[in-house]
Amino acid sequence: xxxxxxxxxxxxxxxxxxxxxxxxxxxxxxxxxxxxxxxxxxxxxxxxxxxxxxxxxxxxxxxxxxxxxxxxxxxxxxxxxxxxxxxxxxxxxxxxxxxxxxxxxxxxxxxxxxxxxxxxxxxxxxxxxxxxxxxxxxxxxxxxxxxxxxxxxxxxxxxxxxxxxxxxxxxxxxxxxxxxxxxxxxxxxxxxxxxxxxxxxxxxxxxxxxxxxxxxxxxxxxxxxxxxxxxxxxxxxxxxxxxxxxxxxxxxxxxxxxxxxxxxxxxxxxxxxxxxxxxxxxxxxxxxxxxxxxxxxxxxxxxxxxxxxxxxxxxxxxxxxxx
Length: 323
Known about the structure:
With about 325 residues, the chain is of the alpha/beta class. The protein has one domain (about 10-300): Thiamin diphosphate (ThDP)-binding fold, Pyr/PP domains (Rossmann fold). Helices cover about 45% and strands about 10% of the residues. The chain is built from twelve helices and seven strands. It has helices spanning about 10-35, 50-55, 75-80, 85-90, 105, 125-135, 155-165, 200-205, 215-230, 260-270, 270-280, 285-310; strands at about 65, 145-150, 170-180, 180, 185, 205-210, 235-240. Helix 9 (about 215-230) links the parallel strand 6 (about 205-210) and strand 7. The chain is globular, with a radius of gyration of 19 Å. The N and C termini lie far apart (about 50 Å). The relative contact order is 0.17. Keywords: Oxidoreductase, Thiamine pyrophosphate. Its cofactor is thiamine diphosphate.
């Protein structure tokens, strides 16, 4: 059953706005660096989806684990990874969170509970299931979150992970960021039942479909899933409905977009909606504008430091390859 979302206080909403602006400004800075040639390689952004990592990461415990996709910059920032370390990693600098070896799509930061990205669609699901199983034996009481897109729901590895997690009642939260585009194909052209959360019942796990543009809705539902997992209630599938305001990758011509789709999505995107809600609660325009201004200043500073950082020493190219 759908739950009624409680009204967040203006202070809590302002905190969410500031954090989501940090995520948005980080990714817009990364896009700028890629288009300017300072960053190379394929880069995938989650602009417009910031409410999901903001809400979910705000309920993480110190021993929990997050497994993202190649669209994972905002999840890493939500886990507490410093912006400068993320940008430096995208730029291939030695000061990057993975020493410049992971780039945009493969970096990992386990010290921050962020167990990395993966370019194999849906591959984080079995990894998170394994981390949850390990938590049963290592005394941490770990809950693992795996996040993936709507297209990954059709991957065999995701099915196997969900089935295994449900059979053994493992503490896993499967978060589907349903932005309606499975890369370049609309999800309604790929499935017979567009409400993907309905699959949860077939596995014997709890499931909920929520507004993925509302950080409070995400926080409350993922929080309930955490409580369920910690109490031995097993896994949960959370389908967070959202929209991607940018292409599948930087440089995507987006010719597959439907007429008017982006205009409608921009009206519902989380930063616009939350800023309007704050204004309705009497929060001044200058306070609201400062959230964006401060975030952009932070990312400008982080990018400048990352650009000044050294490249990795070629002599270390074989480090971490062999035990």
